[in-house]
Design brief:
Elements (H helix, E strand, L loop, with lengths): L6 E10 L3 H15 L3 E7 L2 E10 L7 H15 L7 E4 L6 E4 L8 E6 L6
Antiparallel strand pairs: 1-3, 1-6, 2-3, 4-5, 5-6
Length: about 120
């Protein structure tokens, strides 16, 4: 179970030409590196997208923007992405972070404050 102050990290990676078994094999290093606690597979037309979910704790007293930047840098390193790929969108409590490398062969990550309904 996650805490109200946790951030959720959603990483998606599309594997063209892969079925579910092949995509899982290719995604396992990412699953392990981010400590994913949930997986979702979306297979269609000869490709498979793997969506991985992880929770990251927020440091007590840390504001949302600082948490997103700190955790975003960690996730970027775990995904072997440039930390400069982190983009913040929204404002206040709706602020989210996104790692978008701009290369379809790389994973994409979204970081946001955990919502109560995610339990």
């Amino acid at each position: 179970m996650t805490e109200d102050s946790d951030l959720t990290v959603r990483v998606s990676h599309r594997f063209p030409g892969a079925d579910v078994a092949a995509a899982l094999g290719k995604a396992l290093p990412i699953v392990e590196s981010i400590g994913a606690s949930g997986l979702q597979f979306l297979a269609s037309d000869g490709s498979c997208e793997v969506v991985m979910f992880a929770a990251r704790p927020v440091v007590e007293g840390e504001n949302l923007e600082t948490s997103l930047r700190r955790i975003g840098a960690t996730v970027a390193a775990q995904l072997d992405l440039d930390p400069g790929a982190l983009v913040l969108r929204g404002a206040g409590e709706d602020l989210v972070g996104a790692l978008e490398p701009g290369d379809d062969s790389r994973p994409v990550a979204v970081l946001r404050r955990r919502a109560a309904e995610e339990d």
